[in-house]
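Hi Q.,

Before the meeting this afternoon, I wanted you to have the zinc ion prediction in hand. No need to reply - just skim if you have a minute. The sequence and ligand are here:
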Amino acid sequence: MEAPNHEFIDQMHAETISRLLLEPSPDAMQAYYSKLTKAHNYSDVEVRYINSRIGKGVFASKSYESNELILKEHMLVGAQHTQNKTDALVCSFCFCFIGSIELQIGRKLLFLSDKNSQSSDGHVEDSTEIESMTHITDLNSCAGNLKTPRNIDKEKGSNEDLSSNAAESLINGNIQLPFSSLFSLPAVVFCIGGCEDEFFCSEKCAKAAWESYHSLLCSGPKSLCKDKDFLCKFIHHANETNDIFLVAAKVISSTILKASSLEQLKHKNDPKKCYTSEDCINCLLEAWEPFSMGFKRLWWDSIALPIDLGADDEIGFRNEIKELASHSLKLLKGAIFEEKYAPLFSLQVYGHVIGMFELNNLDLVVASPVEDYFIYIDELDGKEKVEAEKFTRPLLDALGDDYNVPCEGTAFFPVQSCANHSCVPNMKAFKRDEDKDGQAVLLATRPIQFGEELTISYIDEDASWEERKALLKDYGFICMCPKCIKES
Ligand SMILES: [Zn+2]
Ligand SMILES: [Zn+2]
Ligand SMILES: [Zn+2]
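Predicted structure with the ligand bound:
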């Protein structure tokens, strides 16, 4: 059966949709965050409702010294950027780097030689190989992301010779680089569903991803997705247009899985009770609660107009963006629609989920261990360094400026997203050497007293007042921080 169109869903489920999009009351908000901060032991911060203009904010539950850790927070949901997948092989659940230094470098060299062979003769020779390297996935997709024995034309230049030969040996484990064992990474664990798109650092992460969202979005043989053809089209479309759609799909699938497990639990606890559709809606609303806290505005109403467009083009631009989301949702519905959870597939809901990621400005960044490795080699002395560099220097030259690209993506961090902006913030997002996965890390930029509001800067706080004002317009507010008041 084909999934119903957006208009039909909007009409049939108007009431539930408006409940999904309703801004939580200050009490509900406070209750949710106090439950969340307790569950994760984030005991040194508190999320509080401030007023109707500002909404909520984060406050210090103790005093902090400069540079002290304020919060290390797990994401609710997130994803690596599509174009970053060739730069960094990471666990799809916790985003730590996996495999080995050799595998990380080998994949990257393979991708670079691929790019060179594309640009040198101006066309793509074997599109399936290129697609697998750039993660434009299809159903059998990314087998090539870990091992891609490839034939690269030997006459294309010395760098490519090195890249292709060395890359294969590095990927296959035939070369061990000097001192790489000091930078060991967790072995690659494959997806439970048998797809070759997602890799993990442990069975634990593979299981957690499977149970929380991936079982519905997996392209492998054990997937619970209803139509893999649609799933493939959805992933392809997102990779080509906006990879935030992939994170939005995780939000939808994790809500479906959570709602259905809440329902099962209720049945188990009270098997005789007759369950109504209202009970089902309540489970859906409960599963949805974490996301309802993060909503700001509809994506197509709030996205900043590209600078090359004039005011006359605005309506057309916004309609185009809405059309893009509508097409993406249509493909997602084809893949995982469930009648019982139809309200989740409303275009309004989808637009708000995307808006949440676009407007909360929470980047996921994990530094590359390859960078640490090359720094270590560089800091060696005498003969040891000379010997090691016989191996590493050619690799470094072939990798060029891109040798240390971090893992980059989009994520939603529930507490961090509540922190208000200031151009003189008292905390900053900063990964320390020991922070090797996708958790958000917030440090104090100066001494902070108990009870003070904790703020971060959404923009470059060193920009001029005019520039800051323009940048913050995208967030929909005028900054009233001490610096802005003084400079205005
Ligand atoms: Zn992991
Ligand atoms: Zn999978
Ligand atoms: Zn300001």
